[in-house]
Amino acid sequence: MAASDDRTLLQAFATSLGAQEPALRLLISILIGYPIVLIHRYSLYCKNPLIQHLYFIVTGVSIALFNYGQNVVHSAVCVVVAWLLLLLMGGTLLSVLISFIFQMTYLLIGYYVTGTDTYDIKWSMPHCVLTLRLIALTYDVYDGRKDPEKLSGDQQKTALRFTPNLIEIAAHTYFPASFMVGPQFSMKRYLDFVKGTLVGCELPPCLIPGLLRGSLGMFYLGVYQVGISWIPDTFINSDEYYDLALWKRHLVVGVWAKITLYKYVSCWLIAEGVCIMSGLAYNGRNSSGGMRWDGCRNVHVLLLESSTQFGQLIQSFNSNTNAWVAHVPSLPSEQRLVCMLLYGLGSRLLLWPVKVEGLSYSGKDANGNCLWNGCANVKIGLYEGATTFGHMIASFNTNTNAWVAQYVYKRLRFLNNRYVSQVSALVFLAVWHGLHSGYYACFFMEFVVMNFERDLSNYVKQYPRLLAILNAGPLKYIKFVVLKLYVVVFMGYCLGPFVLLKLHRWWQFYHSLFFSGHVIFAGWPLYAPAVKALIKAIGGERLRLEKEKAK
């Protein structure tokens, strides 16, 4: 047989597309979610829950076998352990701690065993999604044993008053629309979906909204493919890159990061389209009475694109996991601290296949319109209009960010220190992504940038005359352009280590930019007094803060 025949058909097809075989398998696995959930919609929707569970288990495990073969055993082990914990001691503090330790340790060992110098699509990639899901399940059962009046609003929505059986846990874990790359959604949402109580037993009108969202994702995928051929990852740290002037290097890095983010944006949007079509993303109705399908959204695209602050960027990006971290259930303070230490010691991509069956249903708005954003991961408007990093964070990966916020950040309030809570959440996110030093460098930059923006923005807001000048006439548009350029350039600066991964690569990357971002953001406490003095001199009358009035 000829040497070329030794390659599989899939390998040959991947090569012809200029892609790697694991990436092609992943894409096929996401796309296959469409027919899977459509079959469920028209033959099993609102039927016997047991049959639905088995259908999701068989299809989900088949996808896992297609991608990772016998390595599916890793997910199976973690599912069985989670079930045994709930069976033997579900609803207890001990079960929460053991789940935390076991699931995070298993994930970290997986990262260590499978890790290389590059980003790899191996069994550990979907396992990070599984880890969050199984940890959250244990917490939700623990919450279900508490007095409902002592639970927060988020906890009341996810708390389980009973212990799910093995089939329910496996179906929730292997749900074919979300097993590979997310989104995160609670067991309660899944069971309501299967029982027909999330939207109702009448087939929801979510096909067109899902197709529109998926089409937007395909558009972004096309933009990414064109852009990455123009500025590939290898261009950064190349001789051609270093020959550019310093200001050009900053601009190129900004454009490169923008293109790189489109890889995630496109995947989340396409996955969200499947979530919407399933009905899982239903999120109630808007003020006009229309259905909302953003319950699984992970990117707020308009905020992401228009953001002028890094805070906006963060709000737009990976919100699903962020909400999870903020929602670590209310353990006693010492146990919560242990959990956070375990997080620190201890996204990936898509949201497609969950939208085709009604699973994205998320209630109705004030006007009675259905909301289908229960699995949303991208806020397109926020993403595209972001002019701060806060905008970017708010628009991107919103499903994941919401997870982090719900299960980690908000549960550290007992520390009475916002910075400790923020650092703990970011350390968890870095560890959850993997062991590469680039992840930690990236989330360190997020921390210093967000605190820079928060401090400066809060101070400027105390001078209404200055704000009025900046927001009036042509200055308003000039300010937008300047802030947008700021977000694009320094988003690239912050994202560099996340893509380059290894210390020697991202250190060289920062050296090529003369560590400008570190000087501006990490150095803020050193020059902040001078900047604030200047603002005070030109800002006019200052508003007194409430705490100052109280004095």
From TrEMBL:
Kindly state one GO CC term assigned in the UniProt record. membrane
Pathway where this protein functions:
Phospholipid metabolism; Lipid metabolism; phospholipid metabolism
* Location of this chain's protein in the cell: Endoplasmic reticulum; Membrane
Report the EC code(s) recorded for this entry. 2.3.1.23, 2.3.1.n6
Q: Name one GO molecular function term.
A: 1-acylglycerophosphocholine O-acyltransferase activity
Q: How does it sit in the membrane?
A: Multi-pass membrane protein
Q: Domain of life of the organism in this record?
A: Eukaryota
Q: Which GO terms describe its biological process?
A: lipid modification; phosphatidylcholine biosynthetic process
For the keyword Endoplasmic reticulum, the answer is yes
**Keywords in alphabetical order:** Acyltransferase, Endoplasmic reticulum, Lipid biosynthesis, Lipid metabolism, Membrane, Phospholipid biosynthesis, Phospholipid metabolism, Transferase, Transmembrane, Transmembrane helix
Q: Which InterPro entries match?
A: LPLAT_7/PORCN-like (IPR049941), MBOAT_fam (IPR004299)
Give any Pfam family that matches: MBOAT
Question: Transmembrane residues, as ranges?
Answer: 23-43, 50-68, 80-102, 415-432, 477-501, 513-535
Q: What family name appears in the similarity comment?
A: Belongs to the membrane-bound acyltransferase family.
Q: What is this protein called?
A: Lysophospholipid acyltransferase 5
Q: Name the gene that codes for it.
A: LPCAT3
